[in-house]
Amino acid sequence: MREDLADNWHISSEPEDPVTERSAFTERDAGSGLVTRLRERPALLVSSTSWTEFEQLTLDGHNLPSLVCVITGKGPLREYYSRLIHQKHFQHIQVCTPWLEAEDYPLLLAGSADLGVCLHTSSSGLDLPMKVVDMFGCCLPVCAVNFKCLHELVKHEENGLVFEDSEELAAQLQMLFSNFPDPAGKLNQFRKNLRESQQLRWDESWVQTVLPLVMDT
């Protein structure tokens, strides 16, 4: 890990400023304890998968920005995809596949990640991915693979993006992380839209959406 950070991210084990602690993403003022994100940092992408043939993971690093991809979860094809990722020899993409405890997962989504990716597809076309619900609950924008009822949750160009295949996902990542971090970019706009959507609480939404249907019967 030390060699990878030094070779690919130009981060040494000893910070240049002795009163500042740095990671690949943040720096912490030792005096005040204030933690701020680095301007020149890689983007942090997170995906949660059960590592099955129904959630096929393929990564093409061509022309992508510097990324750290955290792919969480357990499943039968985890070792297969880990070997496949290792064979890619990415130059500016670091992939890690940890298993996170329940209390750590929301910290990753809400406090660290820049974008979530959902590879869930529904065999019935009637169920919505709970991993996207988790991400939206933490105001994390999502790129999600399309299926029949996904539009009920992911609003394309409003709270995230919908893609059909790996090529379209790669194009979306290039677009979203162009000039990253960009305060005026789509990622921040998606986050703003997610925060605004959370102003409508569950009971208020029920009154607006379900009650009229019940009253008509």
UniProtKB/TrEMBL annotation:
EC code: 2.4.1.142
Topology in the lipid bilayer: Single-pass membrane protein
Location of the region described as Disordered in the Swiss-Prot/TrEMBL record: 1-27
Catalytic activity, reaction form: an N,N'-diacetylchitobiosyl-diphospho-di-trans,poly-cis-dolichol + GDP-alpha-D-mannose = a beta-D-Man-(1->4)-beta-D-GlcNAc-(1->4)-alpha-D-GlcNAc-diphospho-di-trans,poly-cis-dolichol + GDP + H(+)
Localization (cell): Endoplasmic reticulum membrane
Keywords: Endoplasmic reticulum, Glycosyltransferase, Membrane, Phosphoprotein, Signal-anchor, Transferase, Transmembrane, Transmembrane helix
InterPro entries: ALG1-like, Glyco_trans_1
Gene3D superfamilies: Glycogen Phosphorylase B
GO molecular function, one term: chitobiosyldiphosphodolichol beta-mannosyltransferase activity
Glycosyl transferase family domain sequence ranges: 64-192
Pathway(s) of this molecule: Protein modification; protein glycosylation
Keyword Transferase: yes
Gene Ontology annotations for the cellular component aspect, listed alphabetically: endoplasmic reticulum membrane
Superkingdom, taxonomy of origin: Eukaryota
Family in the record: Belongs to the glycosyltransferase group 1 family. Glycosyltransferase 33 subfamily.
Function comment: Mannosyltransferase that operates in the biosynthetic pathway of dolichol-linked oligosaccharides, the glycan precursors employed in protein asparagine (N)-glycosylation. The assembly of dolichol-linked oligosaccharides begins on the cytosolic side of the endoplasmic reticulum membrane and finishes in its lumen. The sequential addition of sugars to dolichol pyrophosphate produces dolichol-linked oligosaccharides containing fourteen sugars, including two GlcNAcs, nine mannoses and three glucoses.
Protein name (record): Chitobiosyldiphosphodolichol beta-mannosyltransferase
Organism: Homo sapiens (Human)
